[in-house]
Amino acid sequence: MTLQACKGTTIARIAITRAVSRALEHCELTHLARRPIDLALARRQHAAYEQALRDAGCEVRQLAEQPDHPDSVFVEDTVIVLDEVAVITRPGAASRRGETPSMAAALNGLRELVHIEAPGTLDGGDVLRLDRTLYVGASARSNAAGITQLARSVAPFGYRVESVPLRDCLHLKSAVTRISVDRVLLNPAWVEARHFPGFDVVPVDPSEPHAANAVLVGEAVIYAVSCPRTAEALRKTGIDVRSVDMSETEKAEGGVTCCSVIFSA
Ligand code: CIR
User: Fold this and answer.
1) Which of 57, 88, 178, 203 could disulfide-link to 3, CB 3.0 to 4.6 Å?
2) Overall pTM > 0.90
């Protein structure tokens, strides 16, 4: 599938997702209390999310359900895909390490693969790519050894890695994501704006701490309905916000970015 992207180039995009695990209710939780999850609703919402990806121009490739891996719908954490290479992570939560082999298999033939090795840990949710810089959240999930291994893996391709301190949130992309060619959406209570020079910073509405997580596809921004005030503010600045209801995966501490891995074909 192709789409007309900004600046007149035609880009084909693949979005890898994974069917929601029947074990989702047994997910890892760090900052939230456990609440009942409606699995059937989670699956319907996930299907609508995949449709939003298609509507934004992605070819969606859904990986098979992993019944024994509660958090496996959150594919973002298992890999960082760049144009030149894919880095298969070693997730910080031991319960999630069995999610990576099938992601590696899905990318085989599409990218050269490298792997984060023990004692390194790295979650893809901590890696925010802004052009040739990979900002990595120094979170409880991504350790110094993992960040160093990432830096070594991508340096030959001209990427720089910057470690970014965080507070009170799970991943860097809980706190900041890109919403246009020159803007990032950011929660100043969780990460400092000064780490992202060269980008205009749009703060979340203070009443919506989880509002900094957005998926940019071309010029469309896929965004959770749970953050209506920030969504309205983004729309007022001309951003094409595409709302999706993620209430059930949000109970598992997932946002919109973590349910897909998007890259150029
Ligand atoms: C976890 O704690 O690993 C999952 N319950 C949530 C992961 C969300 N991933 C992400 O934001 N990248």
Assistant:
1) 57
2) yes
Which domains are delineated in the chain?
Answer: 3-264 (3.75.10.10)
> Do the Cβ atoms of 77 and 146 come closer than 8 Å?
no
Quick check: CB of 25 below 6 Å from ligand 1?
Answer: no
Catalytic residues: 171, 258
Distance CA 92, CA 236 (A): 38
- Name the token pair of 254: 């997932």
CA–CA distance, 186 with 234 (Å, rounded to integer): 12
Q: Does the structure show a pLDDT above 80 at 187?
A: yes
* CB-based contacts of 90, cutoff 8 Å, min separation 6: 97, 100, 115, 116, 117, 118, 120, 121, 122, 146
- In this prediction, residue 3 has a pLDDT band, given cuts at 50, 70 and 90, of very low
Alpha-carbon distance 23 to 45, whole Å?
16
Between CA 176 and CA 11, with CA 257 as vertex, the angle to 5 degrees is 105
Residue 101: pLDDT over 60: yes
Ligand 1 centroid to Cα of residue 9, in Å, is 33
Which atom of ligand 1 is nearest to 91's Cα?
A: 3
Q: Is the CB of 27 under 6 A from ligand 1?
A: yes
CB atoms closer than 10 angstroms to residue 101: 11
- Residue 258 Cβ contacting ligand 1 at under 6 Å: yes
Read off the pLDDT of residues 129-146 as tens digits, 9 standing for 90 and up: 999 999 999 999 999 999
Ligand 1 atom closest to 255 (CA):
11
* Ligand 1 contacts CB of residue 93 (under 6 A): yes
